[in-house]
From TrEMBL:
Entry-linked Pfam families: NADAR
Gene3D superfamilies: YbiA-like (1.10.357.40)
Name of the molecule in the record: NADAR domain-containing protein
Residues covered by the NADAR domain: 2-125
InterPro entries: NADAR, YbiA-like_sf
Domain of life of the organism encoding this protein: Eukaryota
Length: 127
Protein backbone atom coordinates (compact mmCIF):
# COMPACT_ATOMS: atom_id res chain seq x y z
CA UNK A 1 0.00 0.00 0.00
CA UNK A 2 1.50 3.35 -1.07
CA UNK A 3 4.77 1.63 -1.93
CA UNK A 4 5.00 -0.16 1.41
CA UNK A 5 4.62 -3.88 1.95
CA UNK A 6 2.47 -5.33 4.72
CA UNK A 7 2.49 -8.99 5.73
CA UNK A 8 -1.30 -9.18 5.87
CA UNK A 9 -4.42 -7.07 5.52
CA UNK A 10 -4.86 -6.83 9.29
CA UNK A 11 -1.52 -5.04 9.59
CA UNK A 12 -2.62 -2.51 7.00
CA UNK A 13 -6.05 -2.08 8.55
CA UNK A 14 -4.61 -1.48 12.01
CA UNK A 15 -1.95 0.87 10.60
CA UNK A 16 -4.70 2.96 8.96
CA UNK A 17 -5.85 3.94 12.45
CA UNK A 18 -2.62 5.89 12.95
CA UNK A 19 -1.40 6.94 9.48
CA UNK A 20 -2.75 10.49 9.61
CA UNK A 21 -1.84 11.55 13.11
CA UNK A 22 0.91 9.14 14.23
CA UNK A 23 2.76 7.77 11.18
CA UNK A 24 5.53 6.55 13.48
CA UNK A 25 3.09 4.16 15.13
CA UNK A 26 1.60 3.19 11.76
CA UNK A 27 5.05 2.18 10.51
CA UNK A 28 5.54 -0.21 13.43
CA UNK A 29 2.72 -2.39 12.12
CA UNK A 30 4.57 -2.89 8.87
CA UNK A 31 8.03 -3.42 10.32
CA UNK A 32 7.48 -5.12 13.66
CA UNK A 33 4.15 -6.91 14.12
CA UNK A 34 4.36 -10.38 12.62
CA UNK A 35 0.81 -11.67 12.96
CA UNK A 36 -2.77 -10.45 12.79
CA UNK A 37 -3.12 -10.93 16.53
CA UNK A 38 0.06 -8.97 17.24
CA UNK A 39 -1.16 -6.12 15.01
CA UNK A 40 -4.51 -6.01 16.79
CA UNK A 41 -2.92 -6.15 20.24
CA UNK A 42 -0.46 -3.37 19.37
CA UNK A 43 -3.32 -1.24 18.06
CA UNK A 44 -5.32 -1.71 21.25
CA UNK A 45 -2.28 -0.77 23.34
CA UNK A 46 -2.03 2.53 21.44
CA UNK A 47 -5.73 3.26 20.99
CA UNK A 48 -5.36 6.72 22.54
CA UNK A 49 -3.41 7.79 19.44
CA UNK A 50 -5.74 6.48 16.74
CA UNK A 51 -7.50 8.80 14.32
CA UNK A 52 -10.21 10.68 16.24
CA UNK A 53 -12.84 9.89 13.58
CA UNK A 54 -11.89 6.23 13.23
CA UNK A 55 -15.43 4.97 13.75
CA UNK A 56 -16.58 6.86 10.65
CA UNK A 57 -13.58 5.68 8.60
CA UNK A 58 -13.20 2.04 9.60
CA UNK A 59 -15.43 0.37 6.99
CA UNK A 60 -13.85 2.27 4.08
CA UNK A 61 -10.36 1.44 5.36
CA UNK A 62 -11.27 -2.23 5.79
CA UNK A 63 -12.48 -2.27 2.20
CA UNK A 64 -9.17 -0.81 0.99
CA UNK A 65 -7.18 -3.35 3.01
CA UNK A 66 -9.11 -6.36 1.76
CA UNK A 67 -9.15 -5.07 -1.82
CA UNK A 68 -5.35 -5.10 -1.78
CA UNK A 69 -5.36 -8.58 -0.27
CA UNK A 70 -7.58 -10.06 -2.98
CA UNK A 71 -6.05 -8.06 -5.84
CA UNK A 72 -2.57 -9.40 -5.01
CA UNK A 73 -3.52 -13.06 -4.60
CA UNK A 74 -5.16 -14.58 -7.71
CA UNK A 75 -6.13 -17.78 -5.89
CA UNK A 76 -8.32 -16.09 -3.29
CA UNK A 77 -9.50 -13.50 -5.81
CA UNK A 78 -10.91 -16.36 -7.89
CA UNK A 79 -12.63 -17.85 -4.84
CA UNK A 80 -14.25 -14.50 -4.04
CA UNK A 81 -15.34 -13.95 -7.65
CA UNK A 82 -16.76 -17.48 -7.79
CA UNK A 83 -19.32 -16.47 -5.16
CA UNK A 84 -21.16 -14.68 -7.96
CA UNK A 85 -23.78 -12.33 -6.59
CA UNK A 86 -24.36 -14.26 -3.38
CA UNK A 87 -24.78 -12.34 -0.15
CA UNK A 88 -21.65 -12.84 1.93
CA UNK A 89 -22.23 -13.25 5.63
CA UNK A 90 -19.33 -13.41 8.06
CA UNK A 91 -20.09 -15.38 11.20
CA UNK A 92 -19.52 -13.42 14.39
CA UNK A 93 -17.70 -16.49 15.70
CA UNK A 94 -15.06 -15.81 13.02
CA UNK A 95 -14.71 -12.21 14.22
CA UNK A 96 -14.31 -13.01 17.94
CA UNK A 97 -17.99 -12.35 18.50
CA UNK A 98 -17.82 -8.89 16.93
CA UNK A 99 -21.30 -8.15 15.65
CA UNK A 100 -20.14 -5.03 13.83
CA UNK A 101 -17.96 -6.96 11.37
CA UNK A 102 -19.94 -10.21 11.51
CA UNK A 103 -23.39 -11.56 12.20
CA UNK A 104 -24.43 -13.72 15.12
CA UNK A 105 -27.32 -16.04 15.76
CA UNK A 106 -30.73 -14.98 14.50
CA UNK A 107 -29.10 -12.57 12.04
CA UNK A 108 -28.01 -10.23 14.81
CA UNK A 109 -25.16 -8.01 13.73
CA UNK A 110 -24.19 -5.58 11.01
CA UNK A 111 -22.03 -7.91 8.88
CA UNK A 112 -19.87 -4.99 7.72
CA UNK A 113 -17.04 -7.33 6.68
CA UNK A 114 -19.43 -9.34 4.53
CA UNK A 115 -20.70 -6.15 2.89
CA UNK A 116 -17.13 -4.94 2.32
CA UNK A 117 -16.27 -8.26 0.69
CA UNK A 118 -19.25 -7.87 -1.64
CA UNK A 119 -18.10 -4.37 -2.66
CA UNK A 120 -14.54 -5.62 -3.19
CA UNK A 121 -15.89 -8.49 -5.29
CA UNK A 122 -17.73 -5.97 -7.47
CA UNK A 123 -14.69 -3.78 -7.97
CA UNK A 124 -12.45 -6.78 -8.72
CA UNK A 125 -14.79 -7.77 -11.54
CA UNK A 126 -13.82 -4.53 -13.25
CA UNK A 127 -10.08 -5.32 -13.17
Amino acid sequence: YNGRRYRNSEQLYQAFKFMDNRPDIAEIFRTTTKSCTAAYDFSMAHIAYQHPDWDSLCTAKMEIAIWHKFAQHPDIKEILLDTGDAELVVSATNTSGDKFWGMGKNNQGRNELGKALERVRGSLRLT
